[in-house]
UniProtKB/TrEMBL annotation:
Provenance organism: Anaerobium acetethylicum
Gene: trmD
Keyword Transferase: yes
Predominant cellular place of this UniProt entry's protein: cytoplasm
Subcellular location field: Cytoplasm
Coiled coil start-end: none
Protein name per Swiss-Prot or TrEMBL: tRNA (guanine-N(1)-)-methyltransferase
Phylogenetic classification of the source organism: Bacteria, Bacillati, Bacillota, Clostridia, Lachnospirales
Amino acid sequence: MNYHVLTLFPEMIENGLNTSIIGRAIEKGLISLNAVDIRGFSVNKHKRVDDYPYGGGAGMVMQAEPVYRAYETVREQIGRRPRVVYLTPQGRVFSQAVAEELAGEEDLVFLCGHYEGIDERVLEEVVTDNISIGDYVLTGGELPAMVMIDAISRLVPGVLNNDVSAEFESFYDNLLEYPQYSRPEEWHGKKVPEVLLSGHHGNVEKWRRQQSLIRTAERRPDLLKEAKLTKKDVEYLEN
Ligand code: ADE
């Protein structure tokens, strides 16, 4: 998976994703991260990339041409038209399902806006997907791009140490994850649930499934409606 992030703050992307699991995935060559500085494509001798909005109003608008040139450079490098995600509160809301859909791409371009946005004309020409990470307004698209890159990367084979672990976590099958415990067996007077010490794999699996069901019902009942439940699951929840 090759990510290309068009941004006015490339250091944010580089510094934000070079640690831990994503940093290691880059080192291993499982993913690559190309932060492209839009300012480097300014057509102005003062390296400006923004200007006043036509029609007036507060703030500045990112101009079309620098964004377009940054995009064109990436497109030429890839050799075809990639999917281009514009991070905007006006997009469809990001979810595990969207992460799974995008994880199948070879290249993904993220376009990060700032100020009052980007000239609509270049968005019309290059953007294939408008995506929001939630119903709140951030100061720029960099954090949303990083959120998406993190969520997509952990679905790329080899990125997680354990290939099966992605599918047992929250939102797989629209169920929340069961609680986890590690040593010691007793902490602050609280004991690890007996079944987890039993060594009985079948009972452990059953208990974990039930915990997932209870948690989802209590914390995210909206997800439960989408979950694929067995007859046994439904029986358990009804009792
Ligand atoms: N840019 C500003 N706010 C955003 C949000 N919530 N999601 C995606 N991009 C954004």
